[in-house]
Every structure is written in C-alpha cells, then in structure tokens.
Design goal:
Rossmann fold; Hypothetical Protein, Haloacid Dehalogenase-like Hydrolase, Chain: A, domain 2; five-stranded parallel beta sheet; 14 strands
Length: 273
C-alpha cells in the first residue's frame, strides 16, 4: 500500500542556509523509488518550491505551496514545469488594516496569483524567494490574495505570537515562524487541508500518511498525519503535537525518519517476496 509522505522544506528537507545533504536527498529518492507519494508541503511560493523539487528529482506529482493556499502538479512537460491545481484567496485588506502601524520596521508582502508579491518595501535577498513588486500601502490590499507575510528584523517569534493575539486575527489562518515572521492565509486553509484533498485524490488511506516538519505552520499537518514527526530543533509547542521527534536538520533528522520507514515497509511496492 503506497503512503503519502508530506515533507516541509526549510528546516526539514534543507538546512537553513539552503544546503541539501546527500543523505537526505538519497533517502527521499529511495522512498519515491519505492512507489510512495512524496509531497513537498511548504510555506514557500511556487517559484521558490520548484528548484527544490527539481534538486530532489521530484518531477511529477502534487506539491503544496503558500502553506496550503496553492496546490500544483509538477510536470516538466508543460510550460513553467507545473500546472496550477488550486489557489484559495481571501480579501487581505482587513488583515492589513489590523497590521498597519503595529511594528515600526515591519515589511509586508501580499501574494497575488497571476501577479506576484506586492511588497511595502523589498525583502532582503534570499528571504521571500519570489518576484517582488513594490507598491504603496493602500495598494497592497487591492487584489484577492493567497497569503500575507509580515516580517521584522527587530522582533522575535515570541513577539509576533503576542502581536497576533493582541490584534485578533479573526477569519484567517496564521502561523508564526522561527523568527519574527507571520504568514496569514485564508480561513481554514493550511498544509493539512491541501494534503487531505491530495490524499483523497490519490486514493491513499488515512492510516498511510506520514508528515515531517519543524515550525508552527506545520502543526496542523503533523496532527493530520497518521504519523506526525517533528524535527529536533522544532519549538516545544510543535514537538508537543507530534507523534514523535527525530534528530535536528543539522543531523539529517529527516533521513533518519525515512530510512527507518523504508526498513519497516520493505524494499518496495513492486518487489516480489
């Protein structure tokens, strides 16, 4: 029976400096070659997800981007190397109104399908990993969006947890990153909601789902999976909802999980005993 294996990217599949270890790459390839469905589930934009999928050799099949707001079908035979399967949007204007003026040096990015990222000012290189269009604040909320990102170099994750509670982000789904980074999605949208649609479409049983992640935007995904695994460096609140905790990303914790999974499941779906 094939499994659906959902993998976060940053801090899980790759190191925080963007490095992908040979051991992790080999473990992911082994799982995919054994016939299981490996699905990247990330907060990254589509354009920032595609290079990682290519580096892993995941050229076909679904992937979840923008924390569940966007689902694509990887396919090198079509323009852009993917087909858009689903994009869930919301009106970002009310959220932007609540965020405005709450943090002095904050940057805001609004992800708009077909346009790109509208930003209040350019994000530092390597952070947003997507095309940026600088606009006035009032223009940020002019289009339906899949995500709003709020970022500050002077705050902490704990500061933004308190900020989200203070301003009362109602009618949306949000997650705070390991730094002062706040991602806001349409209400009810998460990696888990997108993965459940994929699981149903693939015909994979709920008991045959494995997810690995390391941050607050992975909580719903870890709870959704029959086996949810938190990385060793994950915040305590993420580890608390997981079924188990593996080694850190620096110690190839994802490879540890996948190697053990393959050892337990056997050599492959098409193998003859």
């Amino acid at each position: 029976m094939p499994w659906l294996i959902a993998l976060d990217i940053d801090g899980t599949t790759i190191h925080f400096d963007g490095h992908l270890s040979d051991r992790v790459r080999a473990a992911i390839r082994a799982v995919a070659d054994a016939g299981h469905h490996v699905v990247l589930a990330t907060g990254r934009s589509t354009s920032a997800t595609l290079p990682i999928a290519a580096e892993l050799g995941l050229t076909h099949g679904p992937a979840v981007c923008a924390n569940g707001a966007i689902t694509i079908l990887l396919d090198p035979g079509v323009e852009g190397d993917f087909t858009l399967l689903q994009a869930t949007t919301f009106d970002p204007a009310p959220v932007l109104g609540r965020l405005r003026g709450t943090w002095p040096d904050a940057l805001v990015a609004v992800e708009v399908p077909g346009i790109g990222h509208l930003v209040s000012a350019r994000f530092p290189d390597g952070e947003l990993m997507a095309d940026q269009i600088e606009v006035e604040w009032d223009e940020l909320g002019a289009h339906p969006a899949t995500r709003v990102t709020f970022r500050s170099p002077s705050g902490t994750a704990e500061d933004f947890v308190a900020l989200a509670e203070r301003i009362g982000l109602h009618g949306v789904n949000y997650a705070v990153g390991f730094t002062a980074w706040l991602d806001i999605n349409p209400d009810g949208v998460s990696k888990a909601s997108a993965l459940e649609d994929i699981r149903t479409d693939l015909g994979v049983g709920a008991a045959h789902t494995l997810a690995v992640g390391d941050q607050r935007n992975d909580v719903e995904m870890l709870q959704w999976a029959a086996r949810g695994v938190a990385m060793g460096q994950a915040p305590q609140e993420v580890q608390d909802v997981a079924d188990e905790v593996t080694a850190t990303v620096e110690d190839d914790g994802l490879a540890v999980v996948l190697e053990a999974f393959l050892a337990a499941e056997g050599p492959g779906l098409d193998s003859t005993p």
